[in-house]
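quick one: thymidine-5'-diphosphate bound model?
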Amino acid sequence: MARGIFITFEGIDGAGKTTHLAWFRERLEHQAARAGAAVVLTREPGGTALGETLREILLHQPMDLETEALLMFAARREHLAQVIEPALARGDWVLSDRFTDATFAYQGGGRGLARGKLETLERWVQGEFQPDLTVLFDLPPDTASTRRSAAREPDRFERESGSFFSRTRAEYLRRAQEAPQRFRMVDSTQSITLIRQQLEQLLATLSCLRAPDPHA
Ligand code: TYD
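yep, here:
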């Protein structure tokens, strides 16, 4: 059986990731079903029982920056081992709300942790493994902050300043430039309808991402 496809959604808080995720998942399920695959929707930090416990701590408890980065990667290791790798091996398609690009963007860009340290952790935790496709929702931080939900208390990251989110966004854009074959940019200043059209086109190209089955 062919290996599955790993897709990640990224962007600063308020850039529209959550708005598009449920709709995209539904479309993805239709497409995956045609290929005989299921869709696993998951998120980071989180995605496993341990990961969700770490998420609670990461989002609400003050901590040293390096601790924060280490916990993000610890949650990720568990996520890869328990959820992502087995699903891809089964041939399923995995859609993750954030992955390693978020650590480079938030802990690296936003908080200023040296990129070399993050690269070391990335290699340790995931080797050469990367998403097949990363959809980056891009929006200026001022616009993103006015769109952020006022319905609940902001977490530790959502309370950060405009300059924090400018640095986070800049690091996302740098990563996208570095790996243009993996990233697809979505200009989140556009209407939901236009963004859906763009996502629809992207969905149509997905089958090309499937790696050939080494056992076929
Ligand atoms: P988010 O994905 O925005 O979820 P929600 O829509 O429920 O708020 O929240 C996760 C937060 O965690 C987000 O502010 C970014 C942060 N984060 C990091 O700082 N580093 C990481 O590696 C990951 C995965 C997330």
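The mean pLDDT is 94.
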